[in-house]
Write a structure and sequence with these properties.
By secondary structure, this protein is of the alpha+beta class. It folds into five domains: 1-52 and 282-424, no CATH class; 56-233, no CATH class; 486-557 and 806-948, no CATH class; 565-662 and 728-797, no CATH class; 665-725. Helices cover 58% and strands 15% of the residues. Residues 294-414, 824-940 form the ABC3 transporter permease C-terminal domain.
Length: 948
């Protein structure tokens, strides 16, 4: 029986090929998702081993849960984000660490984000979504994993070293002139050296900065200049090489014994630190694999229909052979086994192709990322476990798809099978009733969700569950109901073809009703793909329409200003904009970090704004209170969502607290005086020694002592004053009143205070401008004003000035970029559906060989036969497309209502896109009919008529 199954598989290899494509695509997504996840995991591990290469790390000993213990933009020795946060530690712990036996000179490694490198041509150097990061490094405090291939470390603010990738992207060489845009503007620099690292940096532009420069700009972004989150320590026990695990533990123990108890610091081994950071970062990227697996499920789900139709075709053509086997004594399970053998062969072939395709897909993605400026060094080859998973998935889907046809072959009565009367199609009424009930339940869940969303209420279990349950019920319900809809759909959709082409049109619509289940299964392949695509289309169109509505009806200002680097607009750039003539008002939103309300942070943003925010930028949609008056009077203006979450109303008194680190003038003065006293004492001792040496006529000793006095004096003159700056934490505690609650979409999750309150609650380091809105004076030429604004911000390279249309276009393009990849991946389900239509028509042609022969014998032309099959295919495609569009648009409408409070305020249905899908479905059907029609016309008329 195995040999018979293999023989049948060889006989139907062409039809197997179409099913193999469906399996291969689904398995490719499965294997590709695992490969991509492993590539990202390997990349993270490689980068962590390179970027966090210290032997021991000293960090806080107290775990914090609300982020209070970490400084903004402070010093770090590694990259990545930890799931746990610890209290910050004093920077001056380096003195304690330097006294520990077995350590190289210790200093804090400062990093600065949000930089921009400008090449010699004046062009900003950037890559796709990757940051530009400056890291403090010098010969005295090197980065062990950095190897200089040219030049050397930077010295002073005027020099910078480049990572090899940054040098490649910028075209800069050692000695070239360039610019680096810092928070306070652009600085001229010279390239001092080029270095490489073992791991690729995933497209990041890495700059080596003089440690003092890195500290200066890191401090500008931090409210705790005397604190850091972590201090890295290199050990000397291995001769300059990384310490072994045991050596790391010994060094960490010695450091822990030396750390003062009041420092709240603890040393951990580098291996433990890297493992923790690697795991956290890998987990944060874990959403990628489920996303890709979703498309794998879609592809395999759609492909299962093709597999079922393929085996239905094979079983139908081989039914007489199976009946003969049964009549000579073959057991039903033996016949079943012959079909299973074919399914196993198909599954193995499709899975093997899918594994290779998935591997190639990830290699292609990696190559594409490299071309776009994000090179990755993580391995992409699938592991044995990945290949086994893909193989098992492909086999399982194939066996499931082949099981029903195999059962039909095994248990059909031999006499009926020989007479070709086997298994006439069952009535679809009962199935239609079940499908209709499921659809009604799903629609009821959606309607309930929609009504609650419109009223702004909350469901006891949230709106996500009824939304998801309704989608599952409707999708399953439509698939179950579809056979009952084939007859009415064929008559309705075939009405126009039947009148335009009286013979072929009527024959095509009648032929569809002869195999309702098979037709419905084929249409289901398109239904699933189009439902998802059209749902995303409605959501995307609504998102863009909502943004356009905000700009067109809500935004009053003429220009918006953003920063393309860290998002922070440099202070000098802000002042340059304010100095431009022709502006009526400049509104700068300054974000306040760390503000707490009644002891808790709100789930949103707190920022300070000018009075012009509600008069010249966005007119407030006031739910209660007067927003303009509240902002002027120093009361809180609260977004509707936050007010609802916290139970606030106009008149509610809220205790607002912030903790800011400020310069301790007294402590700083004492530190400076102590240093001066120390220098004076040292100079006095040396002068006394010089006097003694002069008295004893020790010329050599006197000369050396005089040199020491001069060196001490010079060192005192050149000492960095910042090292004496002492800070203290000042807690601001104010009772403020809620003055207004507003429902503007852009401010639903915001708490707004005026500038005066903002200055009291925050500091210059913790408050920064992210966006500015500019309103022109009446009568100004907006085009000329825009050019003046561009000229004003040109020296800052990264500051973008956009008018209203550009602002709206930018917001819409962000939505399009997100959906582009989704559309491309979901298009594969439509490709698979094409193979399904081909299979269905091929099976239909096989079953109607004699019928088609008779039609040709009585004068039907070859063109009419092709037209009949083309109309059949087009009706199937349109049927599936209409089902998908109906369900997808309905889903999009409900999703838009559910997330209206999050920005989807305007419902927009993309009718043009829907029309394009319908037109495309007709083309898909016609293309899919070409191969079956050719097969139908190849067979001579007499052979077809006499076919048994």
């Amino acid at each position: 029986m195995i040999r018979i199954g293999m023989r049948d598989a060889r006989a139907h290899r062409r039809r197997f090929a179409m099913s193999a494509v469906a399996i291969a695509l689904g398995v490719a997504f499965v294997v590709g998702s695992f490969c991509f996840r492993e590539m990202m995991n390997n990349q993270v591990a490689d980068m962590m081993a390179t970027n966090a290469d210290h032997d021991v790390y000293v960090r806080g000993s107290d775990e914090v849960t609300d982020g209070d213990g970490s400084g903004e933009g402070g010093a770090s020795a590694g990259t990545g984000s930890s799931a746990k946060e610890y209290n910050t530690i004093p920077v001056d712990l380096t003195d304690t660490l330097n006294a520990v036996e077995g350590v190289e000179p210790v200093s804090v490694t400062y990093s600065v984000s949000g930089l921009v490198l400008v090449d010699a041509n004046g062009d900003a150097v950037a890559t796709m979504g990757s940051p530009t990061l400056g890291i403090g490094m010098s010969a005295d405090h090197p980065w062990r994993s950095a190897t200089f291939t040219e030049g050397t470390y930077p010295s002073g603010e005027g020099e910078v070293a480049l990572h090899a990738f940054a040098a490649e992207r910028s075209g800069l060489k050692v000695g070239d002139k360039a610019k680096v845009v810092y928070q306070d503007g652009a600085k001229d620099v010279t390239v001092s050296g080029i270095f490489s690292t073992d791991a690729a940096q995933a497209g990041a532009i890495i700059l080596g900065l003089d440690p003092a420069t890195a500290k200066h700009y890191s401090d500008l972004k931090s409210d705790e200049t005397d604190k850091t989150s972590v201090i890295g320590v290199y050990g000397t026990a291995n001769g300059g090489l990384p310490l072994t695990g045991e050596q790391q533990r010994e060094l960490a123990d010695r450091i822990n014994a030396a750390l003062p108890a009041d420092a709240h610091a603890h040393a951990v081994t580098g291996d433990d630190y890297r493992a923790e950071q690697t795991k956290s970062t890998q987990e944060s990227l874990g959403f990628i694999q489920p996303l890709i697996l979703i498309f794998a499920v879609i592809a395999l789900f759609v492909g299962s229909f093709i597999i079922a139709n393929t085996f239905s075709m094979i079983v139908r053509e081989s039914m007489r052979g199976y009946a003969l086997l049964r009549s000579i004594g073959a057991a039903p399970m033996q016949v079943f086994g012959t079909v299973v053998v074919q399914a196993v062969l198909l599954g193995l072939a499709g899975s093997a192709a899918g594994i290779a395709l998935g591997w190639g897909m990830v290699e292609l993605i990696a190559a594409g990322l490299a071309r776009m400026g994000t090179p990755l060094s993580g391995a992409v080859a699938p592991s044995p476990a990945d290949m086994l998973a893909g193989l098992l998935v492909g086999l399982l889907v194939t066996l499931v798809g082949a099981s029903l046809p195999a059962r039909r072959a095994a248990f059909a009565p031999p006499i009926q099978a020989m007479n070709e009367t086997v298994n006439p199609e069952k009535p679809v009424l009962r199935r239609g009733v079940v499908g209709a009930v499921l659809c009604a339940l799903g629609a009821g869940a959606w309607l309930w969700t929609y009504r609650i969303a419109l009223t702004g209420g909350d469901a006891p279990i949230g709106l996500g569950w009824p939304l998801g349950a309704g989608a599952a019920l409707i999708v399953v319900g439509v698939i179950v109901l579809a056979p009952a809809l084939v007859g009415p759909a064929g008559a309705t959709l075939g009405w126009i073809p039947a009148h335009v082409f009286p013979v072929t049109g009527r024959l095509a619509s009648r032929n569809l009703a002869r195999s309702k289940r098979r037709t419905a299964n084929t249409a289901a392949a398109l239904f699933v793909g189009l439902a998802i695509v059209s749902c995303l289309g409605v959501v995307a169109s609504s998102a863009k329409a909502s943004v356009a509505s905000i700009v067109d009806t809500g935004l009053k200002s003429d220009f918006a200003v953003f920063s393309a680097s860290s998002g922070q607009i440099p202070d000098d750039a802000e002042q340059a904009i304010r100095n431009v003539e022709g502006l009526k008002s400049v509104s700068a939103n300054r974000f306040i970090l760390g503000a707490k309300f009644d002891g808790e942070r709100v789930n949103g943003m707190t920022f300070a704004a000018q009075d012009s925010l509600f008069t010249d930028v966005y007119a407030p949609q006031t739910q209660s209170g007067d927003a303009n008056e509240a902002l002027r009077d120093g009361r809180l203006v609260v977004g509707e969502t936050i007010a609802k979450d916290r139970g606030w109303q106009v008149g509610s008194v809220v205790r607002v607290t912030t903790e800011n680190t400020v310069v301790d003038e007294d402590a700083t003065k004492k530190a400076q005086e102590a240093y001066q006293t120390s220098v004076q004492s040292q100079v006095a001792q040396l002068q006394a020694q010089l006097a003694r040496q002069t008295a004893t006529r020790d010329a050599a000793g006197a000369q050396a002592t005089a040199a020491k006095i001069q060196q001490v004096t010079e060192d005192a003159k050149n000492v960095d004053p910042a090292q004496f700056v002492k800070t203290k934490t000042v807690k601001v505690d104010k009772e403020l009143t809620v003055g207004a609650i507003i429902s503007n979409n852009v401010y639903r999750t915001c708490v707004i205070v005026n500038d005066e309150l903002g200055d009291e609650l925050g500091t210059k380091q913790t408050m920064f401008t992210m966006i500015m809105y500019l309103t022109a004076e009446p009568g100004q030429d907006l085009g000329a004003l825009k050019e003046r604004l561009k000229d004003a911000v040109k020296p800052y390279y990264v500051v973008n000035v956009m008018d209203r249309d550009e602002y709206k276009s930018t917001m819409s393009s962000m939505v399009d970029q997100i959906l582009l990849i989704l559309y491309a991946l979901l298009a594969l389900s439509i490709v698979i559906a094409v193979f399904g239509i081909v299979n269905t028509l091929a099976l239909s042609v096989s079953e109607r060989t004699r019928e088609i022969g008779l039609l040709r014998a009585i004068g039907t032309s070859r063109g009419q036969v092709r037209g009949m099959l083309g109309i059949e295919a087009a009706i199937i495609a349109v049927f599936g497309t209409l089902l998908g569009l109906a369900v997808g648009v309905a889903a999009g409408v409900v999703i838009r209502a559910v997330y209206a409070a999050d920005g989807l305020e305007v419902l927009a249905i993309p009718w043009g896109q829907i029309g394009a899908f319908l037109a495309l479905s007709i083309v898909v059907g016609l293309v899919a009919s070409v191969s079956p029609a050719s097969c139908a016309l190849k067979q001579p008329v007499l052979d077809a008529v006499s076919s048994e």
